Prior knowledge:
By secondary structure, this protein is of the alpha+beta class. The protein has 3 domains: 3-155, no CATH class; 184-241, no CATH class; 253-445, no CATH class. It has helices at 24-28, 35-43, 47-50, 89-94, 101-105, 128-132, 142-155, 177-192, 198-215, 223-241, 253-267, 279-297, 314-320, 329-344, 358-382, 390-403, 415-422, 432-436, 444-450; strands spanning 3-4, 7-11, 16-17, 58-63, 66-71, 108-112, 118-123, 136-137, 167-170, 173-175, 302-303, 312-313. The longest helix has 25 residues, at 358-382. The structure holds iron/sulfur cluster. Iron/sulfur cluster (SF4) binds at residues 26, 31, 71, 79, 81-82, 88, 90-91, 99-100, 103.
Amino acid sequence: xxxxKGKRLTLARGVRFSCMQCGDCCRSFPISLSPxxxxxxxxxxxxxxxxxxxxxxxxxxxxxxxxxxYLARAANGWCLxxxxxxxxxxxxxxxxxxxxxxCRLFPFGLADGPEVDGTVVLGRFACSAVAHGEGETIQSxxxxxxxxxxEFHEVQPPRVASGPPRxxxxxxxxxxxxxxxxxxxxxxxxxENASRPFPERILAISKFLSLVATSRFKTINTGSAxxxxxxxxxxxHAQVGRGLLKTPAFAPLxxxxxxxxxxAMAARRDSARLVVAGPLRLxxxxxxxxxxxxxxxxxxxxxxxxGREKPAVLGEVRRKGPPANPADPAADGAxxxxxxxxxxxxxxxAGSFQLEQVLPSLGLLLRQYPLICxxxxxxxxxxxxxxxxxxxWVSAIRTADWNFGHVPWxxxxxxxxxxxxxxxxxxxxxxxxxxxxxxPEPAPEQAQxxx
Length: 451
Ligand code: SF4
């Protein structure tokens, strides 16, 4: 295991990346700077690259009592340093090591691992190459990642453990990181088992997690409890294989409202310039989000898919969009990459994910599954296609990755209620038929009655 300033480096599974030099990240993401980077860029003479009278190269934003620094954007919203040939002018003139750390790190993301002395590196699926699953494995990037993580921790010192780590699995059930690790390893093992289609694997995962949560084992990493947890995983795997477990068909109203809220989140796309927006612009954006949320709750709204010029109207996607089959090999590949990365990347449990419990985190992730199916249909409709194809699935996982993880779901006045709703890890599958446009197979007794 590599060491980075005393922190163990764990790499998420299933991530591949080689830069395709598409420039999409430079057009789309805000680039945050460390104080020393901001100072270095401020002091440099950029006239050769940017011309006389160029705007300031660093934007300062006051938030939460502190100051944040971002590389400036051009009038079109792209990074100021993105050249006409879609290549980086800082790289061209000063070499790669002089680029901001945020650019050199992308498309990898860092999260504190469940172990207090661990850092996890995962892939950001907003990147086209990562979403396509093309290029070199994340393991082959280990050496450079070691260096980058070391540099990152020089700017942002790692958390110092103040006591044994606490990872509440669900309300009233605390597991240590190794116990959560055991559950996640079994979940990831099921996900990687390509012997049967993705929908069956995810069904087994949701049933298994639900069983662990209701088992009320106070500890699960020793003796008979550990054996029982392994037994749960094997039993559920076998039962799903024999068709004995079915997806739930009904979601109660609070769950449906929460799902619409999630859809509104998944469907929006903030411009990179929003991070430096003033209070009025931010307020307008919040009101816009609220209205969009209400529109989605009413069953309408506009979906903006990554990689699509035109938006798609939700009502039209539902009525006329071609079905999205998650068992299709193209869908299976995209969905497996996305979920495996998010599960093994442990990003779900990082402070930045804004969730304080493991089960609601997993519930939020599982709710992305039907949403991704709907987004794939929207991506197809937005390009005027007649069949959902590989590129639509890639667009859907890029769209989902873009927008999740920035809302304090389990905090605030409604946080407790949302946390309880999210902790239901089976109910997301009840939205599958509605999102895929594929009617579920009738239960054997219904089929008999019909014939
Ligand atoms: S600094 Fe260079 S690599 Fe970073 S966003 Fe700008 S153009 Fe892209």
